[in-house]
Amino acid sequence: MTSARMSAPGDAPPVAVPVRSPGPRRAPDGRRDARIAALAAAEARRRRLQRLLPWLVGAAALLIWEAACAAFAIPLFILPPPSAVAASIVKWWSPLLANAAQTLTTTLAGFAVAIVVGLGMGVLIGSSRLLYHGLYPLIIGFESVPKVAVVPLLVIWFGIGTIPAIITSFLMAFFPIMVNVSAGIATMEPELRDVLRSLGARPRDIILKVGLPRSMPYFFASLKVAITVSFVGSIISETIGANTGIGHLIMLASSRFDVALVFAGLLATATMGIAMYGVAGAVERRMTRWATP
């Protein structure tokens, strides 16, 4: 006798689930890989062009300058061509090097003092509203005074030499540092201050552990501005009350109508400024990498 299996009235009929056999692995998409490689190559070309672009623009400017001087027959005592400036650099390289070293020394000395004073003043002004309202108008008023008008007073007080140049360099450089540091501290979110106070933090702890680190991107960004204007302060002082430096050399060359040597001194100053700006930018990237996306 053949027995048949009967399904209970509540049982659901079995359902067959199809099982797919694993097929072959798909080959990588050639078009996608080619597009990624093309984007990487374009990015590499863009970076190479970005590195070469300043040199290309500078070379083009020098060629246009040289061609304009030759085409319009401009006298050397009015506007010398770059070839004459290069010849003057070769001829007077020793005085240029000595005076550039003097200018760089005074600039770095004033810049170092500006960092200390600007950072300290920025912390004090940014952390105290009383000091902000009390000192800020005076500082802005003094900053509005042309520094070329202050140099004769410095020469009367300290004599002709290096000290007036250092002080002028400091006066030019400390203001952007102070403004940026104070802005970084003063713009701290009030909610963050309230949370820290509720956790038992004292005002000093808030400034040192939160406000000061938060202002570091502002501080290092201000160094790039401060170092360039610091050179301006040194040159201004050296043209009025110094017996060495690039400013003094420029005045001597101007008195002899040696305009090529004047441009050589300006080129030396520009080279030092670009170099120090690059150093400040490298320090900024190194120290504030955590603050950049």
Give your account of this protein's structure:
This protein is mainly alpha-helical. It folds into two domains: 33-73; 82-291, Orthogonal Bundle (MetI-like fold), CATH 1.10.3720.10. The protein is 77% helix and 0% strand. Helix 3 crosses helix 10 and helix 3 (93-127) packs across helix 11. The radius of gyration is 33 Å and the shape is flat. Residues 1-10 have low confidence and may be disordered.
List keywords for this structure.
293 residues; mainly alpha; MetI-like fold; 2 domains; 77% helix
The residue fraction in helices comes out at over 70%
> What name goes with the CATH superfamily of the largest domain?
MetI-like
Task: Round the Cα radius of gyration to an integer and report it.
Answer: 33 Å
Number of strands: 0
The low-confidence parts are: 1-10
Architecture per CATH nomenclature, i.e. the level-2 architecture of the largest domain = Orthogonal Bundle
Order of helices and strands: HHHHHHHHHHH
Beta-strand content? under 5%
* CATH class categorisation of the largest domain: Mainly Alpha
Question: Taking all residues together, what is the mean pLDDT?
Answer: 83
Indicate how many domains the architecture comprises.
Answer: 2
CATH-assigned fold name of the largest domain: MetI-like fold
Taking the alpha carbons of the first and last residues, their distance comes to 82 Å
Quaternary assembly: single chain
Helical region count?
11
Structural class: mainly alpha
Task: Give the biggest sheet.
Answer: none
Shape type: flat
